[in-house]
Amino acid sequence: MHSNYQRAVRPRGAAITGWCEPSRPRAKNSVEWEAIFDFLIQILLEAGNDILCLAARSGCLMLIKRLFEAAKVDPDLKAAIMADNRKTKSAAKGPRRSRLPPVYRPGSLGGSRRRGPLPMPAAWHRALWARYPDAQVFRILIQNWPEGVYLKNVGNDTPLVDFIFNCNEDEDEVIEHLQMLIVSMGNVDASGKDDEAWHTPLRTAARQAKAKVCRFPITDGSADIYSVLGVDQVSSAGDQKAWDEVKMPEELCSLLPLAVSADYILVPTCFELNYCI
């Protein structure tokens, strides 16, 4: 939550529980308290998405449920918690390098493993970043906001791609998190066929030299293995990662028998075959 929100005046319970006491000079204080209550409501409407993101990142299932329950009868609140914060916050000048408000800087909402400014996250991005992801949180999100799993941040990354790009955890733990998402949703598309070339789960895992994670988009998402074989060594972002590693071409070529989707059965070029030798 924004630092200004953290400094908000917090009325004590007595301000509400004792409101109807005969001795309380309500008329004298009504204007003062109306302003405070209006301020609290305005915070929720303006920062609803931030609150949902924080709840998803923290695994606070109760708050997530209550937000969606309240949103069912309050269109303004629903619009607030599902807001596309790429539009409501400062616009980025380019992927992964814009100046962002304090709420999105590393460390403001639990930190980020990405160096530099943090792209605007959605609740789905935050849920995957949780230290201990909760399958129930995924289920609540998919029931109430199914399209959010494909929402892209200003870095043009879906939650899956963003998680793979940023996560420095053990690869087995990464796969466990991704499989939990698959089980919770039932039919998440991890193929990357609707993503831009440099922003697919498979290519991101390959660029990060995460050999085990490369299996996930292929076996669980029918990803196109040829989208990462025989491509340029340097990405559009200017980094040079997995293609300097011997293990990645070997690992990718070992996955060729798993790429059984009819959409991706292609004849490899001589360059690709040499890459696999």
Describe the structure.
- The protein is an all-alpha fold and 277 residues long.
- The protein has one domain (3-276): Serine Threonine Protein Phosphatase 5, Tetratricopeptide repeat.
- It has helices at 3-6, 14-17, 26-46, 48-58, 61-71, 75-81, 85-88, 123-129, 135-144, 159-166, 171-185, 201-207, 211-221, 247-254, 270-276.
- The longest helix has 21 residues, at 26-46.
CATH class: Mainly Alpha
Q: Find the count of extended strands (DSSP E, 2+ residues).
A: 0
Global mean pLDDT:
65
What name is given to the CATH topology? Serine Threonine Protein Phosphatase 5, Tetratricopeptide repeat
Distance between the termini: 52 Å
Helix content: 40-55%
Region (Disordered): 87-115
Biased composition (Basic residues): 88-99
InterPro entries: Ankyrin_rpt-contain_sf
List keywords for this structure.
0% strand, elongated, 15 helices, mainly alpha, disordered N terminus, Serine Threonine Protein Phosphatase 5, Tetratricopeptide repeat
Give a quick summary of the entry.
This protein has 15 helices and no strands. With 277 residues, the protein is mainly α.
Ordered list of secondary-structure elements with their pairings:
Layout: H1 3-6, H2 14-17, H3 26-46, H4 48-58, H5 61-71, H6 75-81, H7 85-88, H8 123-129, H9 135-144, H10 159-166, H11 171-185, H12 201-207, H13 211-221, H14 247-254, H15 270-276
